[in-house]
């Protein structure tokens, strides 16, 4: 904590002492700030008019109702003028000053009402209130008249007309003080009244008053600081003039001038004392309390303005007594306030002359500033790094540990943070350059001044140990060090030239890092956009940027076209270096080869690439060679023919060699040795790498590869890598053939050939799904998924109907094998995946790589579900793994559910309920029918159902059909199998109703009644009377459906007592009228009410007590029975159809998923509304206040979730009597 001395509230400014204003030295002194008014001096109390001025201007000449009439703004208040912002602010202020000079009470009343109205208050301070009330009484009266229904007020209202209000408001205050600074502010009336009013408003509990008055007070303080600064300058000038005049000889000294200067200095001193008192009043009355206000915007205003004061008038404010407020507020919980602290400090540290006064503050709060570089708000982190960059101007303030905490941020994914850290790094490490002698020739290559800086960059990159993020480092340094990073001539010299005498050569590791950095700089210069993961989208380049890009591409091409062949020759055996070097031609301007007469260097490059292809078998190296050929084989440039001939010669040799080796290899069969297999594999790898980017259809690779794959199936001893690359090569053959056919110029015979090859290859991949080698199976599975997706029914879209004959739909056996592969190879524990770990289970990198591979396999299969290549119901086996493998695949499964719901809401719901049914059956087979419902397995299924329920979102109308179908399937499943205990026992799957109840909250109120009726048709009368624990799932599910029902007759026994009371209810009230009344009370849509009432009337005419419906076939037609004995299940199926038909035509389900907590809150809130509003009494209407009415109704409502209250003896007896009488 910065210690501050006691500062008196009164000041006498002299030349030899620092100017200081009064401020609190610590929070312990007057913590609530209530003693501020006692120290305000003349600003503490509202001034009164002199006795001789009371009657002056009483009629308010030139005004109507106290408002101005000048500049064509008749009867327009100050607030309206500032709000419109159309007039020059100085003329508005001048008009007010003229009014003040004419009658200051009326003018001040205008100003007071201006501040009141700027706060959004509709009240008006009258002249009588102004004369007879204290400020506290006026503020209390205005608070009573404040309309707080809407939380908006002028400073927070959005909209074009309020957009500039804040700036106009602040400008008015600044201009007002500036225009009054020579006379009016010293009259001990205007400023005292305004300061007193703003101080009182800033202490109000009304946010609008507090916010507006604080902004006004802070801007007023800023304006007074400007006045004080001018006074200080004038006093210094006057003092110098006085000293100069006094030091003259007596004969030449003008005594009159000395007296005038003394008088002027005295007036300036008095004026400064007045300004000091005003600033003391504002600082202690407003700032000290509001800089820790509960509202972040108010705190931010205070910190922003105190930064302005310290910057404007550093002699008075730049000391620890004021800096401490900024230091404390850097710990604010709101990023907006922390940001203002940093920007305020930047303005101070930018001026090096002020650094000496900041030493104590820097030592006290440096650690906090360093920690703010990791702030959760990126804007705050950026400004903290920029502030530390300015702090570097102060010698040895930041320790190496402080600097290292900023260095690593150059690898941040957030680009502004990374760029700021790059500026810090560049200033710290690269700002010191070797001075060049004047007149000496410019040094180039490794002798240039940039050589050591480039080495420093390499050393930093290696020490950071993030060798896969060179592109991020280059992008961070690009804006501040582009000149250094584009010194490719120096980089090439460091790699090719011998070191100078006494210079240490680069190590192999350093050369690798330098090549990687060099490649990243070339890519950044050619593409002019940040690396992947850091960009915010493509932006339009300016003309200057485009010219710079063209110049850089030309220069890099001229340099590397000459240097690349020797670089490849030097590092030909190093796979990592060669891979990076071979990517350079992708960024060349190939026209330079012709215009610059560099054809011989092109020939040298092609020779080097050919030698690298013959030497290496590494996949990355071969793919880089393939991409380089693809980049050079551009038909737009004249070098195309030369490169195409070289490529064709290379491929001819590779294919001939492969066919010859393959024939010998297959003839030898089991006698083939490892050398033969290696020769076949290495040649096949080269061909596969080139086939990825080049069309090799002319070499007929399908026949040879298919023969190899078929032999591998028959013999079963084909080496793993040969099979994998052969599958990949054949896949490329199919895709290139399809690409040529898609152009529309292919013949019918070509389509037939492609169709045969594709289907034969798919069957081959299906056979390899059963291979003993896991890597082979994974490759076959991935290729199969890709082919099924490419050759699905969607391939004919985009006017490609001629490809319809190529459409391939997988058979059921293939779908089953694909699903089995996913279940056996993806949904496994980490420790079980031993195929790729090779005894390195403890290696986290290997585990992460294996997880990525499994995620790719799952994503490939889920795409088949999303694009309807396989049946959606197969997704049930995927969805049921959602909870168990949430950390590994939760995002993939969740996205799949979302996409399938968009395709078909009802089918998606059936798939979800099917996944729960599968888990339930698995649990039964494991635990038996007598399982404990508190077991972890059952609770896990129930939690999964809850998660599924949350994915439906809050819009019940959109998901109405899907949720109803889900309940229908769930009820049928629960009653499908009879009780294993014999007649009278609960059905085998009855506990599934407990799981199904998780979806009850998603049912609309009228649909709950329909589903409840459907449930009753599966129940016998004896089931409703059971109270044992085994029947609790049925009880709880019925309760979840009855909560919020449309009619209070739908109680637990509604279905069983309704037969005896249905005739009475019909006599008492016609069903149509009852339905109409209910609909009117609930204001439901007409079609929903009609469908619900129709279903209800149908249920009234249908016998409820029927034998167990799981014995009733759903295929029986209605005509096979008399009308009064319709099958319960078929009848309720019609009821559900009525429900579905009422909602046909709704759009696809949107992704309106909500957070879990919020959704649960909404669900419980909806249930409470249902309980409170679902009781419709036919006897009488009691007109009670809403709250009391709801309370009494909730007391009358039975507690459906208490088993003891479900049925007491009297209800049971009445229902039995009704049953016997029926």
Give structural notes.
Belongs to the SCC3 family. Residues 1-69, 1048-1124, 1177-1200 are annotated as: Disordered. It holds the Pfam family HEAT_SCC3-SA. With 1222 residues, this protein is mostly helical. The protein contains 50 helices and two strands. It has a two-stranded antiparallel ribbon with strand order 1-2. The longest helix has 40 residues, at 207-246. The termini are far apart. Mean pLDDT is 77; it is low at 1-75, 437-441, 836-841 and 1045-1222.
What structural keywords apply?
50 helices; 1222 residues; cell division; disordered C terminus; two-stranded antiparallel ribbon; flat; mainly alpha; 62% helix; single chain
| Estimated helix fraction | 55-70%
Strand order of the largest sheet: 1-2
Characterize the biggest β-sheet.
2 strands, antiparallel
Structure classification: mainly alpha
Low-confidence stretches: 1-75, 437-441, 836-841, 1045-1222
Silhouette: flat
Distance from first to last alpha carbon: 88 Å
Mean pLDDT: 77
How does the SSE layout of this entry go?
Layout: E1 63-64, E2 67-68, H1 78-84, H2 89-102, H3 104-118, H4 127-132, H5 135-144, H6 165-180, H7 190-202, H8 207-246, H9 255-290, H10 296-312, H11 314-317, H12 320-329, H13 335-349, H14 359-371, H15 378-391, H16 400-407, H17 415-430, H18 450-464, H19 470-485, H20 488-496, H21 508-527, H22 543-570, H23 575-581, H24 591-595, H25 599-615, H26 619-632, H27 640-668, H28 674-693, H29 701-715, H30 720-742, H31 748-768, H32 774-790, H33 812-825, H34 844-866, H35 876-879, H36 886-903, H37 905-927, H38 936-950, H39 960-974, H40 992-996, H41 1005-1016, H42 1021-1025, H43 1032-1042, H44 1054-1068, H45 1071-1082, H46 1086-1100, H47 1128-1141, H48 1156-1173, H49 1186-1196, H50 1209-1221
Antiparallel strand pairs: 1-2
Helix pairs in contact: 2-3, 2-6, 3-7, 6-8, 7-8, 7-9, 8-9, 8-10, 10-12, 10-13, 13-15, 15-17, 17-19, 18-19, 18-21, 19-21, 20-22, 21-22, 21-23, 22-25, 23-26, 26-28, 27-28, 27-29, 28-30, 29-30, 29-31, 30-31, 30-32, 31-32, 32-34, 33-34, 34-36, 36-37, 37-38, 37-39, 39-41, 41-46, 41-47, 44-50, ...
């Amino acid at each position: 904590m910065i210690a501050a001395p006691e500062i008196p509230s009164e000041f006498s400014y002299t030349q030899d002492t620092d100017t200081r204003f009064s401020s609190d030295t610590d929070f312990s002194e007057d913590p609530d700030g209530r003693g501020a008014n006692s120290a305000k001096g003349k600003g503490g109390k509202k001034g009164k008019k002199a006795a001789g001025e009371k009657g002056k201007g009483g009629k308010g000449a030139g005004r109507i109702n106290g408002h101005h009439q000048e500049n064509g703004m008749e009867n327009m208040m100050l607030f309206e003028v500032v709000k419109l912002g159309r007039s020059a602010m100085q003329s508005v202020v001048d008009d007010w000053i003229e009014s003040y000079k004419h009658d200051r009470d009326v003018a001040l009343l205008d100003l007071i009402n201006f501040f009141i109205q700027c706060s959004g208050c509709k009240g008006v301070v009258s002249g009588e209130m102004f004369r007879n009330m204290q400020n506290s009484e006026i503020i209390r009266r205005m608070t009573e008249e404040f309309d707080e229904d809407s939380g908006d007020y002028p400073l927070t209202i959005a909209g074009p007309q309020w957009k500039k209000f804040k700036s106009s408001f602040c400008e008015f205050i600044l201009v007002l003080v500036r225009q009054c600074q020579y006379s009016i502010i010293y009259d001990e009336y205007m400023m005292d009244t305004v300061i007193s009013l703003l101080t009182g408003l800033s202490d109000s509990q009304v946010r609008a008053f507090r916010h507006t008055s604080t902004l006004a007070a802070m801007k007023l303080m800023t304006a007074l600081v400007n006045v004080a600064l001018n006074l200080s300058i004038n006093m210094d000038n006057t003092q110098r003039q006085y000293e100069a005049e006094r030091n003259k000889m007596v004969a030449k000294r003008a005594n009159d001038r000395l007296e005038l200067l003394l008088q002027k200095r005295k007036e300036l001193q008095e004026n400064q004392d007045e300004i000091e008192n005003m600033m003391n009043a504002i600082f202690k009355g407003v700032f000290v309390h509001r800089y820790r206000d509960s509202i972040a915007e108010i705190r931010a205003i205070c910190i922003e303005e105190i930064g302005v004061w310290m910057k404007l008038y550093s002699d008075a404010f730049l000391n620890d007594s004021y800096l401490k407020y900024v230091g404390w507020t850097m710990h604010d919980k709101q990023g907006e306030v922390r940001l203002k602290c940093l920007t305020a400090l930047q303005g101070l540290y930018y001026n090096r002359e002020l650094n000496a006064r900041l030493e104590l503050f820097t030592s006290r709060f440096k650690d906090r500033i360093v920690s703010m570089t990791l702030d959760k708000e990126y804007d705050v982190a950026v400004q903290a790094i920029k502030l530390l960059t300015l702090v570097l101007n102060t010698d040895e303030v930041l320790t190496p540990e402080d600097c290292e905490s900023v260095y690593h941020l150059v690898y941040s994914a957030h680009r502004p943070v990374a760029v700021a850290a790059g500026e810090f790094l560049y200033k710290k490490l690269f700002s010191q350059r070797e001075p060049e002698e004047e007149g000496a020739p410019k040094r180039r290559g490794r002798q240039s001044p940039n050589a050591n800086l480039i080495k420093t960059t390499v050393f930093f990159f290696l020490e950071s140990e993030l060798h896969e993020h060179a592109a991020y480092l280059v992008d961070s340094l690009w804006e501040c060090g582009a000149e250094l990073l584009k010194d490719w001539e120096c980089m090439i010299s460091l790699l090719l030239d011998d070191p100078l005498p006494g210079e240490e050569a680069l190590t192999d590791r350093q050369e690798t890092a330098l090549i990687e950095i060099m490649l990243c700089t070339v890519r950044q210069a050619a593409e002019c956009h940040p690396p992947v993961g850091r960009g915010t989208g493509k932006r339009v380049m300016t003309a200057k940027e485009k010219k710079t890009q063209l110049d850089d591409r030309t220069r890099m091409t001229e340099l590397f076209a000459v240097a690349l062949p020797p670089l490849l020759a030097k590092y030909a055996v190093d796979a990592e270096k060669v891979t990076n070097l071979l990517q350079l031609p992708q960024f060349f301007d190939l026209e330079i080869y012709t215009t610059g007469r560099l054809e011989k260097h092109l020939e040298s490059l092609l020779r080097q690439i050919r030698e690298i292809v013959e030497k290496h078998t590494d996949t990355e190296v071969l793919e880089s060679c393939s991409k380089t050929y693809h980049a050079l084989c551009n038909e737009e440039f004249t070098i195309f023919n030369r490169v195409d001939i070289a490529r064709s010669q290379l491929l001819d040799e590779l294919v001939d060699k492969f066919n010859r080796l393959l024939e010998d290899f297959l003839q030898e069969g089991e006698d083939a040795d490892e050398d033969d297999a290696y020769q076949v594999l290495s040649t096949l790898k080269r061909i596969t790498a080139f086939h990825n980017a080049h069309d090799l259809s002319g070499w007929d690779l399908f026949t040879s590869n298919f023969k190899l794959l078929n032999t591998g199936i028959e013999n079963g001893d084909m080496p793993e890598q040969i099979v994998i690359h052969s599958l990949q090569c054949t896949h490329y053959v199919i895709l290139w053939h399809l690409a040529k056919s898609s152009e529309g110029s292919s013949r019918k015979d070509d389509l037939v050939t492609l169709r045969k090859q594709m289907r034969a290859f798919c069957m081959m991949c299906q056979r390899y799904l059963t291979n003993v080698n896991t890597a082979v199976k994974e490759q076959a599975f991935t290729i199969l998924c890709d082919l099924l997706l490419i050759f699905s029914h969607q391939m004919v879209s985009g006017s490609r109907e001629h490809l319809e004959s190529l459409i391939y739909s997988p058979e059921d056996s293939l779908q089953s094998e694909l699903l089995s592969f996913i279940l056996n190879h993806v949904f496994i524990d980490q420790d079980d995946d031993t195929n790729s770990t090779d005894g390195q289970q403890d290696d986290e990198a290997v585990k992460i790589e294996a997880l990525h591979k499994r995620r790719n396999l799952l994503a490939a299969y889920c795409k088949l579900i999303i694009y309807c290549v396989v049946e959606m119901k197969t997704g049930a086996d995927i969805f049921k793994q959602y909870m168990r493998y949430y950390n590994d695949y939760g995002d993939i499964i969740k996205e799949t559910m979302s996409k399938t719901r968009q395709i078909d809401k009802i089918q998606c719901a059936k798939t979800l309920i099917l996944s729960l049914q599968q888990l339930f059956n698995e649990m039964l087979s494991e635990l038996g029918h007598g399982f404990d419902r508190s077991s972890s397995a059952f609770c896990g299924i129930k939690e999964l159902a809850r998660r599924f329920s949350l994915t439906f979102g809050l819009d019940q109308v959109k998901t109405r059909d899907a949720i109803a179908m889900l309940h229908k399937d769930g009820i049928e499943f629960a009653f499908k199998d009879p009780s294993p205990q014999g007649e009278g026992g609960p059905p085998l799957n009855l506990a599934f109703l407990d799981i199904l109840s998780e979806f009850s909250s998603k049912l609309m109120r009228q649909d709950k009644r329909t589903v409840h009726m459907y449930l009753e048709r599966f129940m016998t009368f004896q089931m409703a009377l059971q109270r044992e624990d085994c029947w609790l799932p049925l009880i709880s599910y019925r309760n979840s459906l009855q909560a919020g029902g449309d009619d209070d007759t739908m109680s637990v026994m509604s279905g069983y007592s309704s037969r005896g009371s249905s005739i009475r209810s019909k006599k008492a009230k016609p069903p149509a009228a009852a339905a109409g009344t209910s609909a009117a009370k609930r204001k439901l849509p007409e079609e929903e009410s009609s469908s619900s009432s129709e279903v209800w009337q149908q249920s009234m005419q249908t016998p409820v007590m029927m034998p167990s419906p799981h014995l009733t076939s759903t295929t029986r037609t209605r005509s096979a029975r008399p009308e009064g004995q319709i099958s319960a299940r078929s009848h309720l199926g019609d009821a559900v159809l009525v429900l579905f038909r009422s909602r046909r035509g709704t759009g696809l389900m949107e992704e309106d998923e909500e957070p879990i907590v919020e959704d649960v809150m909404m669900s419980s809130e909806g249930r409470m509304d249902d309980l409170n509003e679902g009781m419709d009494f036919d006897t009488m209407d009691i007109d009670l206040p809403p709250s009391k009415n709801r309370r009494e109704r909730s007391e009358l409502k039975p507690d459906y979730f208490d088993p003891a209250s479900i049925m007491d003896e009297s209800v049971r007896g009445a229902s039995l009597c009704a049953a016997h009488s029926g």
